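Re: the request from the purification team.
They wanted to know what the chain is likely to look like in 3D before they choose a buffer screen. I agreed to run a prediction and write the result into the notebook, where they can find it.
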Amino acid sequence: MKEQTSEKAPVCGCGPLSEAQKHVLHGHGTEPPGSSPLNGEKRPGHYDCAACGKRLFSSTAKYESGSGWPSFFRAVPGAVGEREDRSLGMVRVEIHCAGCHGHLGHVFPDGPPPTGLRYCTNGLALHFVPDEEGA
């Protein structure tokens, strides 16, 4: 019997990526607003890159922006890279994982104090890790 190879989906620190995750992380796609279960996630914990497992955001920096996407006012220092995005006929700042360069979303200068920033992220690009109870 021939041995199967695992060339289907990239395997990452968080497991294999779905087609939708690959579209967002590797194809610079965007999930529909309001579609992520992470929008309503309120537990203490942190958010890792779904592609490589790098810690990106803390739940203490998450807030309800009303945008339809999980939003944070601060990233873990050194975890998120930025680059100019001129797609869709506008100039924005794209954010990506500093570890694997997977597309996360965009950052806007309309967030709350103390930073004034809104890291508007695709939930498909994130993996939520709750804090251990009693830790």
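For the purification team: Confidence is low (pLDDT under 50) at residues 1-12.
Please add any questions underneath this entry.
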